[in-house]
Amino acid sequence: MKSIHFSFTILILSLNILNILSVDRQVNTNPVWEQFQPSIAALADGGYVITWTSWEGAGWTECFARRFYSNNSADGPEFRVNTEDHMYQVCHSVSSFPDGGYIITWSSGAYNEMDIYAKRFYGNNSVMVPDFVVNTNFDYRQEFPQVAVLKDGGYIIIWKTEKADGSRTEICAQRYHANNSAYGEEFIVRTYTRDNQFRSEVAALEDGGYVVTWTTMYDNAGNYNPDIYAHRYHANNSAYGDEFLVNTYTSSAQANPAIAGLKDGGDVIAWVEDRKSTRLN
Questions:
Q1: 144 and 173 Cβ atoms separated by less than 8 Å
Q2: Which residues lie below 8 Å from residue 49, measured CB to CB, with a gap of 6+?
Q3: How many CB atoms within 10 Å of residue 203?
Q4: Which of 127, 176, 179, 185 gets the highest tally of CB atoms within 10 A of its CB?
Q5: What are the residues facing 174 on neighbouring strands?
Q6: pTM of the full predicted structure?
Q7: Euclidean distance between the first and final Cα of the chain, in Å?
């Protein structure tokens, strides 16, 4: 029996309004197997770092990264982020610090026993903080982490946690000080936790706080009505009011939000709407 192998290329296209600054380029140097799920962060020196997941064959994946200068030339070869080299390492998110460093977060472990890991790097690509486990609850499956660096030099990591029986998923978060120590304990972002929450994103705000957004599968009555919700937090980590519904059009499914903080202190959220889906209102 013949085996079929796939090799995908991760590409980046730099744009300045309508002026193309560079042509497509291949980021990964390993052409074997599948390279997927890239994430990118701009760095303080004008360069950028890209992370992705690499299918290594034999039933496992690894988390890789590569840094580029502001002139788009590579700052060395790609490198493996995770220290563990077995099971699944799935890269999800990278965020940069004002000092030129950056932090990468990923999910690690067997399919039903995954945890959230992170690793912090200096501006010269050397390791500041080696691999560490983010979640403190190990009873459920943890996956799909996102990280955002905050104004005080700390950072916030969010992720999806799934109960062992698969009955419910929730969005959890853990904040850290600038010295990498935990800022309190991990917590559940949403106050209503009966239904499934997934596809979460987080963005830092100008006032030192942050906003978390996610897709919720069911409404409070238990009907299948996917919507986009968000919850804002103060710089001291306290909630800024209650979670709120983002979308105003509620006759179809809403999913996959993306969020960015703005210079004026606000934020913008975008998402996908499927007007062909059926909702129960």
A1: no
A2: 40, 41, 43, 65, 66, 67, 68, 94, 96, 102
A3: 22
A4: 176
A5: 157
A6: 0.87
A7: 51
